[in-house]
Amino acid sequence: MASAAEQMAASLNLGAFGKATELKKRIWFTLGALIVFRLGTYIPVPGIDAAVMAQQMSQSGGGILGMFNTFSGGALGRMTIFALNVMPYISASIIIQLMTAAVPALEALKKEGDSGRQKITQYTRYLTVLIAAVQAYGISVGLSALKTTLGSAVIDPGAMFTFTCVVSLVGGTVFLMWLGEQITARGIGNGMSLIIFAGIVANLPVAIANLLELGRTGALSTLFIIAFLLIGLAVIAFVVFMERAQRRILVQYPKRQVGQKMFGGDSTHMPLKVNTSGVIPPIFASSLLLIPATIVGFSHGGPGWLQFVAHQLNHGQVGYMLLFAALIIFFSYFYTAVVFNPEETAENLKKYGGFIPGIRPGANTAKYFDTVLTRLTTIGAAYLCVVCLLPEFVLSNYTLPFYLGGTSLLIIVSVTMDTVAQIQSHLLAHQYEGLIRKNRGKSRK
Is the pLDDT confidence value at 15 over 70? Predict the structure, then answer.
């Protein structure tokens, strides 16, 4: 028997969407903010030679610059004010989250409620500015020393360019951080994720058009293009299935008597996602693996051992795939241990009188959670390895006009699912408001 909420969610349609005026305003605000973001990806940092920058990006597109250029929607390749995107904010958020689990003062601050979360958010903003300033300074120094066959990447190197570059890039990151928070508060939510999503999908139409053009000219066979598109759809369906997959643990609450009435005795389910760590493991693993290739790209050579390591860690190489899989597995277990504490969960369950049938409350329940979570993390890590290594295998054996890694695919699918869920929650809230108004009208009559 479906609950009232489930029946209401199943009845959501375009008619309900048309009546949700507040939701339509939120969607229009979100679209407007994303348009502002896309316009900003074409505003260049002063003093950059665009032709030299384009040549350098084409030569080192397989390094970490290529990955960040994909996340920024091409802003890094054009060296615009949004070149850093919101990646400094993402890095700061992850660092603060890890420190919250390790530093008692931050952990206590997290438990203070809304005021504590506001302080942690403020710390995240400060750390974002610091990380963005360090990255911007590194980029300005690297660009000042960058020279190609077309000349120097910086028209007039010097202290003034370094200052201008740092201010432009940090200002762009701070503006995007503010814009993402506005989308979260006044739009449909997930502001930072939507900005990264918009950057990734911005180049997909051109990439698909180039793929079809190669098929028209005969560079790629029609059968290969059809098979490629079908495999892509199958992988997307697999990602959707795994991202929604969860293990539901039955939780029972005992009955208690208050006066002559009995309360409690209800049962519920505690959902544990198969992929608890999300897209964090592939992002961390990609960043670590691509650093040597980027160093070689900036140094235009370097020692022989460094070139050998960088070659082995290029996309499609056996060493890259093995280390990529190993790092994904490591970060899957590590990040899951950070975001889910079995002892704390078991203690909270015991505090409210809940228990798992057949498991004693307390330490035994924590051990049970740890066992289940370890098994789920093993499946989730294997799933991430398959999704992230499949594009690398395709790129190593076939020539494609674009690069879309497993990390980008995971972000696209996850953000799309979260956005749809946000829209459904807004529609559901609108339906509830309508029912409340109807009930009030009936009671007055």
Answer: no
C-alpha 335/C-alpha 97 separation (Å) is 10
- Check if the beta carbon of residue 203 is closer than 8 Å to that of residue 76: no
Question: For the chain, what is the domain count?
Answer: 1
Question: Does some domain include residue 306?
Answer: no
Q: Is residue 193 part of a domain?
A: yes
Does residue 39 lie in a domain region? yes
> Is 139 a member of any domain?
yes
- The model's pLDDT over 384-433, given as tens digits with 9 standing for 90+, comes to 999 988 887 777 776 665 666 778 888 888 888 888 888 888 777 766 66
d(CA 435, CA 439): 6
Condensed to tens digits (0 to 9), the pLDDT of residues 116-144 reads: 888 988 999 999 999 999 888 888 888 88
Q: pLDDT tens-digit profile of 147-176?
A: 777 778 788 888 898 999 999 999 999 999
pTM of the model as a whole: 0.79
Q: Which two tokens stand for residue 375?
A: 């098994």
At 33, which CATH number? 1.10.3370.10
Tokens describing residue 233: 């759809």
The token duo for 301 is: 């050579």
Buried residues in 231-268 as b, exposed as e (16+ CB within 10 A):
eeeebeeebeebbeeeeebebebeeeeeeeeeeeeeee
Domain span at residue 174 reads 26-199
